[in-house]
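Objective 1.3, modelling of assemblies. Example input:
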Amino acid sequence: GAVVSQHPSWVICKSGTSVKIECRSLDFQATTMFWYRQFPKQSLMLMATSNEGSKATYEQGVEKDKFLINHASLTLSTLTVTSAHPEDSSFYICSAREFYEQYFGPGTRLTVT
Amino acid sequence: QQQVKQSPQSLIVQKGGISIINCAYENTAFDYFPWYQQFPGKGPALLIAIRPDVSEKKEGRFTISFNKSAKQFSLHIMDSQPGDSATYFCAASGRYGDYKLSFGAGTTVTVRA
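Predicted structure (tokens):
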């Protein structure tokens, strides 16, 4: 149990375009989902907390207009990177909370050319 | 400011040996302490977790030791295997802030056959 999926697993896009990443909890309902960014050989950096039916809460320094988060249902949250630039290239990981536990998706590798 | 400090940054252990990773925290509001295992290019996987009402928890070859008064906790990997070679992250969360996790910097474990 407690499986979280992400789609796509990797994406390449051109600078200036937008990319949407989906995060789904497959076998449980998650009132809270989280979005992280991870650079090579570094820890996970929390970008935002997403609650179903309400606006996301962004961490300090994260541009909310650039990283749009929508938590449409108890099993789906999406992250849209708008007007992507090469510096947005990274590994994006979502997690879904069930009680105390957070379960992570497999991650999405974004490359902006 | 990193709320959870993790050491060592990396370690090498022989097959069959014991790997020990240590973490320390300051925030006394933390009441949930998970460990995650991450392989390259994958999302973190929940390995084992502990609450502060117990001093030790064991699951297979993995054991968490918890010292509430010292605000420290550690992961012991017994009989280390080459398949255990991965990056391990300790984390902590509390009831506030939707239980968002504060992560340690990570420890890269290499098990030599």
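The CA atoms of residues 58 and 109 of chain A lie 21 Å apart.
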